[in-house]
Amino acid sequence: MASDESQLQSGELPSDASVPKVVVSRISLYLRELQRLEAAGRSTVSSGQLGTLLGFSDAQVRKDLGFFGQFGYPGVGYRCEELIRAMRDILGTNQAWPVVMVGVGNLGQALLGYRGFGRQNFSIEAAFDADPAKVGVIVQGIHIQPLSELPATVAEKGIRLGMIVVPANRAQEAANGLVAAGVEGIVNFAPVTLTLPVGVQQVAVDLAIELEQLSFAVTSRLSKIVSAGGEPAGDISGIVVPPAD
Question: Which residue positions in the chain have pLDDT lower than 50?
């Protein structure tokens, strides 16, 4: 297991099959926090400090980093700049990643305006929509193209990552188009499971599921309080709301 007292070393990265997805997710969280710390002027951080900021134990931080090598310096901890660079190497964001988007509805337009992608070396280079009324429109500097131009654009720009931001009943069709065009990884915002060929990676982002997880956590907490005989904070059952004017 790697520790703060280990010397920073580089080496072969483990295969994706040997690293749990939850660990990779935490690596992204560590990277964001390290970037924030560095921007605030911090040059070093310990596993305990990094874990406390994110709600993890120092042992968890060390275990997660241990999947990828040995990091840290005796009496110093982790040097933020070096660990940021190492994490970018791990995540593959030490290079620019052009991305193509299919679907430019309300959520798609919001994503086109999200500046956080650029800070992590992702840039939406092209966007497509099946709606003729949207084709030709410029959104956040991106010229919306017809789906017929998808293969040529992906090849021309060397795009390997795609985003699907369409209704559920159109998601598989959009995925098929991206795969046929040569896209190797897809982020799917539609609330449906995609069927993709072996070798094409996918990540599902279902915002309703995230809210369900949050509501479960809040409900569980309130249930425990009530079971203990207490009053849940913020309980408004006894408040009379006056009628609207």
Answer: 1-12, 15, 235-245
Beta bridge partners of 124: 99
DSSP state of 185: E
Whether CATH 3.40.309.10 fits 97-207: no
How far apart CA 178 and CA 60 sit, in angstroms, is 37
Query: How far, in Å, CA of 201 to CA of 9, rounded?
Result: 29
Number of neighbours of residue 185 by Cβ within 10 angstroms: 16
The b-or-e profile of 103-126 (16+ CB within 10 A means b, else e) is: bbeeebbebbeeeebeeeebebbb
pLDDT of residue 16: 56
pLDDT confidence of residue 14: 52
Is-contact 155 136, C-beta < 8 A?
A: no
Number of H helices, E strands in the chain: 9, 9
pLDDT tens track for 132-182: 999 999 999 999 999 999 999 999 999 999 999 999 999 999 999 999 999
Q: In this structure, which topology does domain 16-91 adopt according to CATH?
A: Arc Repressor Mutant, subunit A (1.10.10)
Mention every residue, 6+ apart, whose C-beta is less than 8 A from residue 14.
67, 68
CB burial class (10 A; 0-12, 13-18, 19+) of residue 71?
Answer: buried
In the prediction, which pLDDT does 172 show? Answer: 97
| β-sheet bridge partners, residue 144 | 127
Structure tokens at 96: 């620019």
In this structure, the strands spanning 97-102 and 138-139 are unpaired
- The CATH 1.10.10.10 domain(s) of the chain lie at 16-91
